[in-house]
Amino acid sequence: MTFAELWQELAPIGRDPGTGGYRRYSWTPADAQGRAWFTRHAEALGLSVEPDRNGNLWAWWGETRTGAIATGSHLDSVPDGGGYDGALGVASALAAVKMLKDKGFYPERAVVLALFTEEEGARFRVPCLGSRLMTGAVDPDTARSLAGDDGVTLAEAMTAAGADPVRLGPDDDLLGRLAAFVELHVEQGRALAPLDAVIGVAEGIWPHGRWRFDFGGRADHAGTARFADRNDPMLPYASTVLAARQVAAANGALATFGKVIAEPGGANGVSSSVRAWLDCRAPGGESLDQAFTAIHSAAADAAAAHGVTLTVSKESYTPLVRFDETLRDRITGVLAAAGTDAPVLPTGAGHDAGILAARIPTAMLFVRNPTGVSHSPAEEAHLADCEAGVRALALVLEDLAR
Ligand code: HGY
Ligand code: MN
Ligand code: MN
User: Are residues 73 and 198 in the same domain?
Assistant: First the structure.
């Protein structure tokens, strides 16, 4: 099975026929299809596929099971996400193992492929939930009660999908068996194309967080309620969105409100509440904290001006990640020796590699994204670049696992 054939089989899973975007949410039928696709191809390669206690899948190659070299990524997507985010890393991991097996390589250290659950946090709101649980970065009871917009909790969704939520929690035994984790991912942003480079290596990940802003107002009639009598939560929400952009631009940060739910949602009524999610990221922790504090303050002032209540809750926060320099330099060295000069790049996108970095040496390979667009059906990568990514990953795994 070539990479292109793997890719062709995976492409229809969870894809919306209308938009061409993906809706692969954790513990849904599309997720189950993705897990089945991964398991089928890993087992066809002779790997032994095992779920861990947190719903992640691990496909093992080799007997040693200590000092293992892990690679992989995620299949879950943001709403209407692109086809490459996460999926490219999973398909490339399978294709890289196939490439190494075809050339007769056998790993002295085990190689293990990882399929992480809920990396986007698109359903249960905490990104990298599978790797956060594994590393003890999220409390299991808190995780079990996380609910999506439909009110279904993680525990209920896992149970309905035939998984057991009771065992969620830190997995030091599994972590103790991993010597390194290398995640291949489509580039998000457009740094490689101007450098005429196909493969990049990650330097680190910006600190980033996700906060929920709850604006509480008072429902009323759109055609009869005087402005002076209104407590309309839409107004402070709107000014907070604009303030977020201004504050972030002034702090060298990025701030986005990408999701908002106005209740009860009548076109001819003043809303009773507005729930909105802020995604804020910055090159450093201090500038991120400054940006968030200023946005929060602007929201509080706007809410008070309209007689609207405001509650802000932090849903996730990831501090600055610096990937392991020794591993990074070894990888750039291996690629350079093979004729691939891979630029070292920072990124503002979060990844499971960024969570595992707190516990084991991790690194990331980026594959050129010609437009830089991600979290969109327009996300793309050329097949030749994806195949170059597979070759690069195979080289890295062969070097690390020999
Ligand atoms: O949101 C992110 O940075 C990643 O795509 N989960
Ligand atoms: Mn993503
Ligand atoms: Mn991703």
Answer: yes
DSSP string over 158-217: HHHTT--GGG-S--HHHHHTEEEEEEEEE-SSSSTGGGT-SEEEEEEE--EEEEEEEEE-
For a substitution probing ligand 1, which of 120, 187, 205 has the most ligand atoms within 8 Å of its CB?
120
Give the CATH number of the domain where residue 283 resides.
3.30.70.360
Query: pLDDT band at residue 345, thresholds of 50, 70 and 90?
Result: very high
pLDDT, greater one: 48 or 63: 48
Contact at 8 Å (CB) between 286 and 207? no
Ligand nearest to the CA of 205: 1
Task: Note whether 302 and 350 are same-domain residues.
Answer: no
Q: Which atom of ligand 1 is nearest to the CA of 350?
A: 3
User: Which ligand is closest to the CA of 183, given by its number?
Assistant: 3
The pLDDT value recorded for residue 341 is 97
- Please name the residue whose Cα sits nearest to atom 6 of ligand 1: 120
The confidence score (pLDDT) of residue 146 equals 98
Average pLDDT over residues 341-364: 98
Domain ranges, residue 53: 3-206+320-400
Domain of residue 181, CATH code: 3.40.630.10
Total domains, the chain: 2
- Report the pLDDT value the prediction gives residue 96, as an integer from 0 to 100: 98
122 CA to centre of ligand 2 in angstroms: 9
Q: Kindly report the pTM of this predicted structure.
A: 0.97
Q: Which residues contact 289 (CB under 8 A, 6 or more apart)?
A: none
Instruction: Determine the pLDDT at residue 64.
Output: 74
The ligand 1 atom at the shortest distance from the C-alpha of residue 86 is 5
Q: Are residues 308 and 191 both part of a single domain?
A: no
